[in-house]
Amino acid sequence: MKDEAKAALPEADSSPAPVMTPREIVSELDRYIVGQRDAKRAVAIALRNRWRRQLVPEDLRDEIAPKNIIMIGPTGVGKTEISRRLAKLAQAPFIKVEASKFTEVGYVGRDVESIIRDLTDLAVNMVKEEEKQKVEISAHEVAEERVLDLLLPATAGEGDGEAVDAARLQGTRNKLKKMLRDGKMDDRFVDIEMTQTAMPMIEVLTPQGMEGMEFNLKEMFSNLMPKKTKKKTVKIPEALEILTQEEASKLIDMDKVTGEAVRRVEQSGIVFLDEIDKIAGRESLQGPDVSRQGVQRDLLPIVEGSTVNTKYGMVKTDHILFVASGAFHIAKPSDLIPEFQGRFPIRVELSSLGKEDFIRILTEPKNALIKQYEALLETEGVHLKFADDAIQEIAAIASDVNERTENIGARRLHTVLERLLDEVSFAAPEMHGQQVTIDAHYVRERLSPILKNEDLSRYIL
After folding, report:
1. Which run of H or of E encompasses 166?
2. What does pLDDT average to over the chain?
3. What are the backbone angles phi and psi of residue 385, rounded to the nearest 5°?
4. Residue 161 contacts residue 205 (beta carbons within 8 Å)
5. CA Rg value for the chain
6. Per residue, what are the HEC states of 197-264?
7. Cβ-count burial of 205 within 10 angstroms (0-12 exposed, 13-18 middle, 19+ buried)?
8. Has residue 384 got a pLDDT over 90?
9. Which of 257, 273, 409, 418 is the 20 to 30 Å CA partner of 192?
């Protein structure tokens, strides 16, 4: 059974499964994100091109580099959400990092190669979970047998009555298994043994650029340290869950998992570089801007295509798609060093959001905020309903506050709705079975006192 389960992970197929057409991708993104047509078209074409690349002749395939994208637009207009949804559609390893968190080599801070190491970690976990699901039934069956062994140790008598005792024992075991599956033993406790590595408290201090050494040292120590078992008393459902996870891990071939994960990172990985404008330093300025340009130069090899050492082996970045984004209020894309600009040939500008956009955001997407709040309060038996004039008023208030204070885009709707529904959310447990209708009058009544005081609205909304 173990060998069969390990064979569950197929070898990488040379012919990739077809992905959606660009039109279908845009349509799917429209279900979650309002407007921003140009950005959606750009990422849809980029995703489709990855599939096209897999079908071209092999000698040309490696020469086709991904067309990286820069999204330019204020905060809260959908830049991150577009990339996150794109990764879900592609079922690809995806990581979001803030460019401002990295520093030039030689300064104290994170090494840019850690982006690829983190992305590979995510991919390994993704593939591992997929494989666990494939062997879950087999692992659950083994876990059941282990629990039954705890409830009824498999011991039979000796001599002439041995066969009779074994048959009686098997009959009892079958009855227990039926009770176990029917949930009739869920309140019983069992003692299970869990294997642990006696790891000492080791703090590994690694120089920047050598973070991979930390993983290797910790793995070496974990292999050298003795294994010890610890007994834990848990209810049977929890015991089944723990033992199923343990057995599933035994059935998975981790060499194949890591091989598939590295392949996915190299061929379909997506890195979202946020706040790219924060490292767009100008040569005429002194001080921190020197370090900012250094970060760009450190990022350049990864974006251009290089090989990064990870604990799972070498990972090539040549075909990872990089999507950068920034508000560019002060700096401009042209302030990036020319070499870095050249690696992001596609630039799309996302527009600011106004009242009409907010109305659509509140109602149209599959995960619209109005739907979320209605579902949340429904769990308390409170039926929340928003009148059309209330939605218009909420959108107008959010747009007005964005104009008068810092423009944080659609995120303003979260703060407005939280303040608006504060009283209902607090009292909901005592309002079971009631219907609450939010109309324009209710919105004005709750928010007008805050809106009249500009200092108050600045801090609350």
Report:
1. helix 162-181
2. 80
3. -130, 135
4. no
5. 28
6. ECCCCCCCCCCCCCHHHHHHHHHHHHHHCCEEEEEEEEEHHHHHHHHHHHHHHHHCCHHHHHHHHHHH
7. exposed
8. yes
9. 257
pTM of the model: 0.75
pLDDT tens-digit readout, 110-129: 678 889 999 999 999 999 88
Q: At which residue do the structure tokens 């579902």 appear?
A: 375
Per-residue model confidence (pLDDT) at position 184:
76
- Name the one residue in this structure whose structure tokens are 């950068």: 324
Q: Which two tokens stand for residue 16?
A: 């990739």
If we measure between CA atoms, which residue out of 368, 393, 394, 373 comes closest to residue 384?
Answer: 373
- Model confidence band, residue 359 (pLDDT cutoffs 50, 70, 90): very high
Placement of tokens 């392949």 in the chain: 263
Rounded distance, CA 177 to CA 32, Å? Answer: 46
152 touches 172 (CB < 8 A): yes
pLDDT at 9: 44
Side chain identity at 57, as an amino acid letter?
P
At 201-254, the pLDDT tens digits run 444 444 544 555 555 555 555 556 566 677 777 777 877 788 888 877 888 888
In angstroms, the CA 239 to CA 232 distance is 9
Which H helix or E strand runs over 320? none
Exposed, middle or buried by CB within 10 Å (0-12, 13-18, 19+), for 291?
middle
Return d(Cα 49, Cα 268) in angstroms, integer.
Answer: 11
